[in-house]
Amino acid sequence: MVRNWALFSFAATVVILIVIAWLVLRKYVKIMLNIIRDTPPPLAMGPRDFERIDGKPVTFRAFDNLNLCGMFLQGQHGGRPKGMIIFAHEFSSDMYSCARYCRPLLKSGYDIFAFDFSGHGESSCEPGYQPRQWPTDREVDDMLGAIAFVEDWLEEQQRPVAIGLFGISRGAGAAILAAQHNPAIRAVITDGAFSSDTTLEHFMKRWAYIFAKVRFVYENHPPQFWRFLRWLLFRECRRKLHCNFPSVLKALRRMRPGLPILFIHGERDSYIPVEQSQLLYDSAPPPKWLWVVPKAKHNQSVVICPEYYAVRTTTFFDEHLAPVSSPPAITTFSPDPAQAQPARDAASPSCPIPSPISANR
Q: Is residue 161 part of a domain?
């Protein structure tokens, strides 16, 4: 040891650095795992936020074979619907929240299929599994099951198999992940969408300064450090939470060309920063649009700007779904929710129609 003191010192230094790096990484992973487990989502809906609409109840199977519940809502179309739209609700909500977003679409003549994700509303939940507020493989299986069920239903009704997707927050991520290779999906609207990987990396950086002892260290981590930490975190999630977090960002990069996507995001979203939707928008192939709603918080764009929200969503589907979805006259559902009372717009600041939304690239 005396004769090889230089080599010994070098080896000891390397070992110490590896141990310190491992301890730092373990601490970060533990912190982020606790955030995933315990951070409650923002309260998006109140008991008087919307009037419930009841439709024709159905049950179907998710791709992981769980029983899910859903309902068909018939639009005001006199037997000639403009198209079929699947609504994917946010975390801690249920299929009835579609009334908050979809009344203008029903009034415009679209049929809606809304469903409860597993562990929500009336749907089953895998024993021993707790749903997460981030899009996981479970929500993708639920979404794929809903799409397959609606495809079969449209074929039975001899209607064109053309579907629009309308997803909110976590439901928006699941919609994108399920749509990337399915030619039956003709148009997608997302509100408050995010990708688990980039969003968690954002939270890692935001929270690091609270827990890191040395400021220079947490302010000078290279990008590779955060990506490696994210990989470790998802590996730990698979082991402890028993789920995977697919990347919505990567799904958009692999999205088939020509699928129109409208991204909606609240300017004052303190839960999912608007930059997250900007990242998704930048990664998506055209045609695509991004509408950042002034003064709106997470999932509150429809409350802050109800009139233009209705115009924007119906116009988008009119342009990209209705032209390929118009069937001959069909029989109606029962019951007919189109007779429900019109939505009561929540008190909100004025929201003038903005100049053209981010240019389609």
A: yes
- Same-domain check for residues 144 and 163: yes
Query: What gap in Å lies between CA 345 and CA 100, rounded to an integer?
Result: 10
Residues 6 or more apart whose Cβ sits within 8 Å of residue 30: none
| Nearest by Cα to 73 from 105, 121, 41, 40 | 105
Structural domain boundaries enclosing 141: 56-195+247-325
Answer whether residue 41 is part of any domain: no
Query: How far is C-alpha 136 from the geometric centre of its chain's CA atoms?
Result: 10
- Is residue 354 assigned to a domain? no
Q: What is the pLDDT of residue 40?
A: 57
What pLDDT is attached to residue 95? 96
Residues whose CB is less than 8 angstroms from the CB of residue 299 and which lie 6 or more positions away in sequence, other chains included? 42, 44, 45, 90, 168, 169, 191, 192, 266
For residue 239, is pLDDT > 60?
A: yes
pTM of the model: 0.82
